[in-house]
């Protein structure tokens, strides 16, 4: 059964697309956009170059991350990443845009779940919410763990819960058709879907993944067709609620982290769409000079990339083993091997890092995890 389109026009909501969103990560974004402001938001390439991995890990060798990306053919190796034409740049339209997006797209779920302590049973059953207790329980166990719903204030969360509709789809059913107008944003509770752009399968996603945000964020036609790979349970959020509650946060995170992430060498196998999903799941932390970020022997639950500043890696009995600068990563060993932290990382200057929790690390980094494993210093 097709979902009805929401009667409200999204341009009437408080957040106007040109003021709150950046261009979508599409090579053919120009063809999709009417707002010149959105096109102006296309980032230029960053001069960041060189890469020092932590714990004696990977060294990118020649060139910057973006150079490596643009020389890599679509769908080569662990994933396609042609950044030269992305984010509304001058790339070729049509199938090239599709190829920019992903082989190996990974689903996206944060480890953090909705904290039930913040949402008493009574408040969850607010009058605006038409969900049954059974549906609420399922939501709390699954969909509410989606990073997009984390950190919502209580009121916003209730509005989202009140607006979510359960949608059951059969294997093979078309949930979204490329080129259509956007009506709903979806989160997968159970089952799996595949993404098809110009008749080419570009990715798959399972429980916890979300999709359908691009058309709602940018008032653009659907960028991909999404079909159910098996009988699946989805939750649909209408575009007005999406734009009112989730748009600002999603757009600002993608804008804030997009430029930085595309030049991080270790992420070079991720395509534009995967980087957007990664941005959704990141948070930033800052440390003063001398502060310890992770301590050898501690239990580790986060992966880090240096956004700004310098840090040192030290090991008991060995002293300093590594310097970390912008784009360096650390914290991967504990997540890869379920080991305690193998070294201490200390801020040498004021330090800003982006962090990804363990679930996000496993689900969103995909091909990157293989590279990290190959360079895991504890295995050499
Ligand atoms: N490679 C891709 N290109 C475009 N959209 C994709 C891709 N992979 C997944 N998608 C999702 O498919 C959705 C189709 O509808 P939207 O364009 O609204 O939002 C899109 C994304 O959420």
Automatic annotation (TrEMBL):
Low complexity compositional bias, start-end: 41-57, 65-75
Q: Where is the composition biased (Basic and acidic residues)?
A: 1-12
Q: Where is the composition biased (Polar residues)?
A: 16-34
Cite the SMART domains for this sequence: cNMP (SM00100)
Q: Which family does it belong to?
A: Belongs to the cAMP-dependent kinase regulatory chain family.
Which PANTHER family does the UniProt record give?
CAMP-DEPENDENT PROTEIN KINASE REGULATORY CHAIN, CAMP-DEPENDENT PROTEIN KINASE TYPE I REGULATORY SUBUNIT-RELATED
Spell out the subunit comment.
Answer: Tetramer, composed of 2 regulatory (R) and 2 catalytic (C) subunits. In the presence of cAMP it dissociates into 2 active monomeric C subunits and an R dimer.
Name it: cAMP-dependent protein kinase regulatory subunit
